Fold:
Amino acid sequence: MPGSSEWLRAALYATVTGLSLSCTEGGTVEVFAAWIDDADRPCFVHQYPYSDGVLGFRCTDDIEEDVYGDALADPRAFGQEVADFAVGEPLGSVAGHLRPDRIGVHWCGELEDELPALPATARATGGPDRPESIALPPRHH
Structure:
């Protein structure tokens, strides 16, 4: 993925807006936070409708082709690929490899030893058992 900040911001925006156009279940995903971390990796915290928890996904830096083998040099194409096949897909076998953080987000993707931290602008609340936790809206089924 090209590393310029403009490209990354465009890819991040394309992912979030691309969920509503997704060819998978992306239109049913609710995104709570999306940001570019210190290592220039797009990160997303979201709730998938068929999962009870809050999920986090940190993009890899080696997504160069879509599922059809076509190059993803354009940030919009990259973002739509992430929306369709990373954030908008059911977890499948990834569910057994999720790593929970201290506030209850279950992470997958390109992870370091230290899991991504939510930016200060993310919706988070305090509570007696957790100093921080994701503020979940009521579920609509």
The longest strand covers residues 30-36. The chain has one domain: 5-134. The beta strands are 30-36, 42-47, 54-58, 99-100, 105-109, 124-125, 133-134.
